[in-house]
């Protein structure tokens, strides 16, 4: 009888451990969390100055900027689309804010409002062409990226706007408790994102539209409105990312957003946002942004050739995709 009880207890313990493994495998952000922890440990061991408060402050600040850039891409990926004009919209918002604050002399808060309106309008234009004319998001946003980029350099003539009020740069340069304000803002934003997709009707409708648009339509969801909303939000997030970039740099540079393509896709995809739509992870986005920031910072700390940065990043993305594929296969085999 005693042996039977012991065996039962052992079986329950094994089953409990198995359930934990299955629960971890179900999460799309498991691989990126593990990879980020490994990278953090490697860089901490490899460089004595990596864990300095100054360096960590910069890492967390860069993480926040990357996350907001990726959020603009993730919100359209989750509905089954993409936004190749994300960087151009961010640049257009930056130039709008620069003109408002520097050329027109408006208060910084008015510059913020105008930039966000421009970002939302640019996203709306993308959404309208996708929804009304049934065009592929790749084609629409590729074309609009050239249009918006032309406007950016046509308005600015390629010159930066340096008359940015000091009050506007506080968000991008200062912090609280040794942690950048940008990072606190990122945490709050990710919490809101998690809540929206887990507990609100609109969040579930977005996921349903990206998961299976035909089924979503049959269930009564107005998918065209959801797609339009996703593109508008993408434009808004691009504008917000551009504004935060100004706050960090202290000037509105027209070239802002030119390198956002790889950042937005890398953070979004590595962070668990499904390219086919229907899945997004707030924790994954934040962790993936930290991962990319660690790679950029760690390579410099270890004295690696920064000219190979994108090659390193490409390798990391490939490994992350392979890890995710392995996780899905392992999870499927455990279910069977």
Would you kindly provide a written description of the structure presented here, covering whatever features stand out?
The chain crosses the membrane at residues 32-53, 65-94, 106-131, 138-156, 176-197, 226-246, 258-275, 307-326. Its main location: membrane. The longest helix is centred in the last third of the chain and has 27 residues, at 223-249. The two termini are 33 Å apart. The protein contains 14 helices and two strands; from the N terminus they run αααααααββααααααα. The protein has a single domain (57-321), classed as ABC transporter involved in vitamin B12 uptake, BtuC (Orthogonal Bundle). With 336 residues, the chain is mostly helical. The model is unreliable at 20-24 (pLDDT under 50). A hairpin with a 2-residue loop joins strand 1 (175-176) and strand 2. Helix 2 (30-46) packs parallel to helix 13, helix 4 packs antiparallel against helix 5 (108-132) and helix 5 (108-132) packs antiparallel against helix 6.
Report a brief summary of the structure:
The chain is mainly alpha-helical. The protein has helices spanning 2-26, 30-46, 53-77, 86-103, 108-132, 137-156, 166-173, 181-199, 201-211, 213-218, 223-249, 260-270, 282-301, 309-335, and strands spanning 175-176, 179-180. It is a multi-pass membrane protein.
């Amino acid at each position: 009888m005693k042996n039977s009880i012991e065996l039962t207890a052992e079986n329950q313990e094994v089953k409990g451990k198995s359930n934990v493994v299955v629960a971890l495998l179900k999460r799309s952000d498991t691989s990126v969390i593990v990879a980020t922890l490994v990278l953090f440990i490697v860089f901490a061991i490899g460089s004595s100055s990596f864990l300095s408060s100054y360096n960590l402050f910069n890492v967390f600040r860069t993480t926040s900027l990357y996350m907001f850039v990726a959020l603009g891409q993730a919100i359209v990926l989750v509905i089954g689309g993409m936004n190749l004009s994300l960087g151009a919209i961010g640049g257009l918002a930056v130039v709008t804010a620069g003109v408002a604050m520097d050329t027109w002399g408006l208060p910084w808060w008015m510059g913020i409002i105008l930039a966000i309106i421009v970002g939302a309008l640019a996203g709306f234009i993308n959404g309208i062409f996708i929804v009304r004319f049934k065009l592929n998001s790749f084609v629409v946003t590729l074309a609009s990226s050239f249009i918006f980029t032309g406007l950016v350099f046509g308005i600015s003539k390629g010159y930066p706007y340096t008359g940015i009020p000091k009050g506007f740069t506080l968000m991008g340069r200062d912090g609280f408790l040794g942690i950048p304000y940008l990072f606190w803002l990122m945490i709050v934003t990710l919490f809101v994102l998690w809540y929206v997709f887990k507990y609100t009707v609109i969040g579930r409708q977005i996921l349903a539209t990206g998961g299976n648009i035909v089924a979503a339509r049959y269930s009564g969801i107005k998918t065209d409105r959801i797609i339009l909303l996703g593109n508008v939000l993408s434009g808004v997030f691009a504008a917000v990312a551009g504004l935060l970039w100004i706050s960090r740099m202290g000037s509105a540079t027209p070239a802002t957003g030119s390198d956002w393509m790889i950042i937005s896709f890398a953070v979004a995809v590595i962070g668990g946002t499904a390219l086919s739509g229907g899945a997004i992870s707030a924790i994954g986005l934040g962790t993936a942004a930290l991962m990319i920031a660690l790679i950029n910072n760690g390579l410099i700390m270890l004295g690696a050739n920064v000219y190979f940065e994108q090659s390193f990043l490409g390798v990391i993305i490939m490994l992350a995709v392979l890890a995710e594929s392995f996780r899905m296969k392992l999870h499927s085999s455990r279910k069977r």
